[in-house]
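hiii so my PI (J.) wants the whole complex modelled not just the main chain, which honestly fair. so below is everything: two entries, each one labled with what it is. i double checked the lines twice but i was tired so who knows lol
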Amino acid sequence: MDATKLVHMANQIAQNFRVHAEAEAVRLTVEHLKSFWSPGMRRALQEHAQASGEGLEPVAAAAARALG
Amino acid sequence: MNRERDLGTKPTGSAEQVKLTVDGREVTVPKGTSVLAAASLAGLQIPKLCATDSLEAFGSCRLCLVEIDGRRGTPASCTTPAEAGMVVHTQTPRLLALRRGVMELYVSDHPLDCLTCSANGDCELQDVAGAVGLREVRYGNDGEQHRTAPKDESNPYFTFDSSKCIVCSRCVRACEEVQGTFALTIEGRGLSSKVATGTDDFLSSECVSCGACVQACPTATLNEKSVITLGTPTEAVETTCAYCGVGCGFRAETQGERVVRMVPSKRGQANEGHSCVKGRFAWGYATHQDRVKKPMIRARITDPWREVSWDEAFAHAAAEFRRIQASHGVDAIGGITSSRCTNEEVFLVQKLVRAGFHNNNVDTCARVCHSPTGYGLKQTFGTSAGTQDFRSVAQADVVLLIGANPTEAHPVFASRLKRRLREGAKLIVADPRRIELVRTPHVEASHHLALKPGTNVALINALAHVVVTEGLVKERYVQERCEPKDFESWARFIAEAKNSPEAMEAHTGVPAADVRAAARLYATAKNAAIYYGLGVTEHSQGSTMVMGMANLAMATGNVGRDGVGVNPLRGQNNVQGSCDMGSFPHELSGYRHVSDDATRELFEGLWNAPLSKEPGLRIPNMLDEAVGGRFKGLYVQGEDIAQSDPNTQHVVAGLEAMECVIVHDLFLNETAKYAHVFFPGSSFLEKDGTFTNAERRISRVRKVMAPLAGLADWEVTQGFARALGLPWSYQHPSEVMEEIAVLTPTFTGVSYERLDQLGSVQWPCNDKAPTGTPIMHVDRFVRGKGRFMLTEFIPTLEKSGPRFPLLLTTGRILSQYNVGAQTARTDNVTWHAEDVLEVHPFDAENRGLKTGDLVLLQSRAGETTLRAVVTEKVQPGVVYTTFHHAKTAANVVTTDYSDWATNCPEYKVTAVQVSRASEAAAFQQEDRRRDVALRQVAPGAVHASK
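here's the output for the full assembly
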C-alpha cells in the first residue's frame, strides 16, 4: 500500500491516543495496529519507519518500530 | 386469505383483569379494554366502521352500539370500557334495527357497484351491510349525494375515490396518530364534509405515502393501484422489509407467486403495523425488467457478457480465484458481504472467505456506515449494539438526536418518536442541517445545535463538560456501574477548560449558552435517550464520537433501563446482522477477535479448516492494495461499491486493476461494469432467512416466490464454495442458522422454530435470555463495568479554504434507499428523480445561483454536476446532497479520508467549490460513454441450470 496513506492512517491513530502519556500512547497504537491492520500493512509501515520514517509523527513512528 | 384480527380498539396493556359477560359468554380482559374489543376476544364480532385497533376509539359510526344491563340507551362499544360484572348484549332486535337504519343511510350515498369495485371481497362496508341484513335503501337517488365525486389518482401507488368515502375519519386519524404527519383533514360540515388534503391532490400535499390511510380505509376510497389492477390477494406470507434498519414486519399478500401488495403487519414487533413509502409500495424492483436472470462471465471488462450455466459460472469463478492465489498469493483475493442479504447468506460469505480463501479479507458495507459504532460501543459497553428496543422511546423524556434524520431515513421509528414528542417529551437536535424534526407541525425541538460539519466530538465534549462541572453526574450510578479509575481520568479530562462550551464554540459554531441549556436538559431528565445516525459515524473521529456519547450516557445514568440508552439508527436492513455474523476482517461472529485461540479453534473444529489469526483487509485497504498491484480478486455480494464508496475514481481504479471481480447482485450495477463474473442474485421475496434490525431484533424472511435466476443467494455462495472444493451441503437456511447458534454465544437460543413461536427475538438469545433481550446492560454492562474513554477533539484535516470554500455533507431522502438500485426502479422516482445540491441563499447569491441551475461541484477528489436547490435548511458555508442516483455520482467528490479507528469514510465533510455549469462534468461524460459498452451482453443465451 502507498506509504503516504499508511503514514496518514498511522498518524491519525497515534493522534487519537495522544491524550495519554507518550509510552501509553505508543502501547495503545501498537495494540490498535495489531488488532486491525493486516500483517502486510503492518510490515509496510514498519519498513517505512525503519527506512526514512518520513511523515510519521513521534508516537506513530515509535509504534511502527515496535511492531513485532 | 387469512386476515389479521382487528379487535376494534387498541389493547391497554393493563395487568389488572376484569371479567364480564357478552352475549352469555364470560370473558376476562385487561382493565380499560373496550367492550368492542372484549366482545372480539370472546369470539363475537360487533359491526363497526370507524373503529380499528390501530387507532384511538372515535365513536362516530354508530354501528358498534350495544345494550348493557342496568344502563340506559345504546352506548358505542368502542368508547365504553369493559367493567367487572358487566352484562353486555350485542344482538338485540333494537340494536339490529338501529344498525340497519344507520347502514341504510351510509349506503344511500354510496355507489352500488360492488361486483366491479376494487375492494369487492375486502370491504368492511360490504361486510357490515351483510352482517346487519341490509336489504333495501328507501331514500332514492334524487337527493344530494357524492357518487360522481372525482377520483384523485395523483399518487403513483394509491387512488382516493371520494365517491366511495363514508367520512369515517379513519384515514385522517391514521395520518395523525400512526404516522404523525397531519396531512389530511375533514373539510366542511354535514353532508358537505369530506376528506381533504389542504392542496389540490395527494401528491402535492404533505402526504408522505406511508400507506397508513390506505390500510385504515374500510372501503375502496383509498385503495392500492396494484389491487385495482390485479384484484384482491388470495394468500399472505409474513416476512420482513428489505429496506432500512427499522426492519418492519410485513404481510406479502399475493395471488400465487405474484405479489399484489405489501401490508405492514401488526405482529411486526419493530413497526407494530406501520410502514413507510419504501417498504409499503416500492417493491416493484423485485420483478423489474432489469433483473439479470442468467449467470454471466467475460475475460475482460471491455468484452460483452456471455450467459452461461450456473455450473460453468461457478467453475470459472473458482478457477480464476485459485489461479490468482497461485500466482499472487493467498491474500490476493477477498470478499464483501451484503447488509441487504440475510444473516445466513452473510455468514456463508464470511465462512467462504475464511475457510475457502484461507484469509480474513472479508468486509461489509458497515465499513462505510456504522463500523465506528462497533468500535466505540465495544470499547465502552462491551458489545457492538444499540441498547434498547424501539418501543423504549415511548418512555423517554428527553431525546438527544445526533446526526440522524429519522423522518427521511428511518420513518417508522420517526413516527414513534413524534408520537412521544407530541405527548410532551423534549427533543434536542444536533445536526448541521435544519432537519424536519427541528420544526414541523406538532413537533418542535427545544434546541437545535446547528454545529459545523466535523465538530461532533467538540460538541459532545462540551455537553459532558457541563455535566461534570455543574454537578450533574449521577454519582451513585457511576460508582456502582462503571470503572472508577477510568471515570476519574475522564472527569478530569472533560472538566478541562478546553472542553467547555465557551472554548468549543469556536469550533462548533454553537452558542455556549445553547450547549449548556441542552446539557442540563439531557442530564436532568428522568429518562434521556440518545439516537444517532451516520452524521456521527462518517467522520474522521466517528469512533471517538460514539465513545463520547457512551460517556455522556453513563455519566448521567442513562443506560440499562427503558426510555434511555445509546441507539444507532442503522442504515441498511441487515447492517446489524452483517456485523453480528462476522463480516469484519478482524472478527468472527459475535464480535470475537480472530486472534482469540479458543474461539478460532471452535470454528476450525466445526468447519474442518485452519483459520488465520491475523486481521484481513478492510474494503478501502483492498482497493488500495489492488491499485498497488497486490490484490487481484474480489467477490462482492449485494453491494455497489463503485457508487456507494467514497472517491469513486479510486474505487474504479482498484476494480479495474483486479483480474477477477465477481459481482453477485440483482442488477448489472455500477460495480458490475468492472466485473468478470456475474452471479444473478435473489430479492428478499425469493428466499428464506433472517434479518437483524437496529434493535438487535432477528426476524424471519420468508420466501414468497421462486428465485428468478433459479437459485437463492445462499445457494449461489454454496455453489461457488463447492466449486472451490468446500464440502458444503446445506439444504435450507435454517441449517445455517443452526450452525450460527452453535458458534455464536449471543445466538445459542435462536432457531427458526423459536422465531416462529415468538415472531422475532432480540439477541442475546441464549440460556440466560431464552426469549431475547429487549434492553441491554440492565444490571451490568456486557464488559462488566462501563468504561469511560478519553475523547480528545482533533479537527479533521479536511478543511475549507480559498480553493474549496464550502463544506459538503451528504445524507438520505425518504423516497430513496442507498444507491437507488431498488427504489430508483420504482415509482418512488416521482418524488426524487435525481440528486440535488442544497445551497444556502447567501452562498447561492455569491455565485449567482438559483434553484434548478446546473452546478459544478468540485473537490480535491473529483467533480460532478447536479441541480441546485437554494434553501435555508443548510447553513451558510455548507452544501448538502444525497447519493441515490448513479448519474449524479456524488461520491466522485467525497475523499478517502476516514475514521481513525475503523476507516469509515468521512462522507460528512468534504471541502468543495460550487459554480454554475453548462455541461456534465468530465467524469460523468466519460462514464456515460463507457456505460453501454461495459454492460453489453452478447446475443445467444444459454439456459441457466443448477
